[in-house]
Amino acid sequence: MLRGKLFEGSVFFQQVLVVLVGFCVVSIDLYTKHLCALMLDGVTGVKLLPILNFVKVHNTGVSFGFFGGYQFSNLFFLLVNVPVVLFVLFFSFRERRLVACVAWGFILGGAVANVTDRVRFGAVRDFIDFHFLDLHWPVFNVADAAIFLGVAFVLFYSTSEKVGSIN
Question: Which residues are catalytic (predicted)?
Answer without folding.
Answer: 126, 144
